[in-house]
Fold:
Amino acid sequence: DAGITQSPRHKVTETGTPVTLRCHQTENHRYMYWYRQDPGHGLRLIHYSYGVKDTDKGEVSDGYSVSRSKTEDFLLTLESATSSQTSVYFCAIGETGNYGYTFGSGTRLTVV
Amino acid sequence: AQSVSQHNHHVILSEAASLELGCNYSYGGTVNLFWYVQYPGQHLQLLLKYFSGDPLVKGIKGFEAEFIKSKFSFNLRKPSVQWSDTAEYFCAVNHNDYKLSFGAGTTVTVRA
Structure:
């Protein structure tokens, strides 16, 4: 969708290496979210942010960290990638949950 | 934690057939409800949402959903599906904070 971009779109990495995924928005939304999508699990919240330098954990945060130094950028880092982190990662933005989110195009990450 | 249940994992039907996808949630308070669609290889897009008022909500592409508070349900319907409705459908719930909880998704395959 216009206003939110994720990079990279695809990445293959080796077990044990660090990986950073980027989400960039031009909508000036306060809230940003990282989800992972896996078959049979739908979308599960990893971390979210409610402002610059304000972040909190979601339901599947183990093995992930995030940073938000600017309103427009929300970074997701896998400190030491594992095969269980092979997934499709979606970033979303929104002002409040009441109005739903706008999703990015996703990053397909494969850990080998 | 709030949970969202989608009863059907995979639905296969023919063009012009009617579609109904079930969604139930566990939270008993005030909720906001959403249905998202994900076409093959794409990101999630909002189909429709319910905040308050008329429990029958109409969305894009001819979809509608009915909120039944007593049953904690928000089922999605379409009277006559098309091949282009082949996608994965996600129900999501927000309860007055800024996070959405998603169901596991239902894959809909429409055969021409």
User: Anything to note?
Assistant: The mean pLDDT of chain B is 92. The CA atoms of residues 28 and 76 of chain B lie 20 Å apart. Chain B touches chain A through 27 residues (CB under 8 Å).
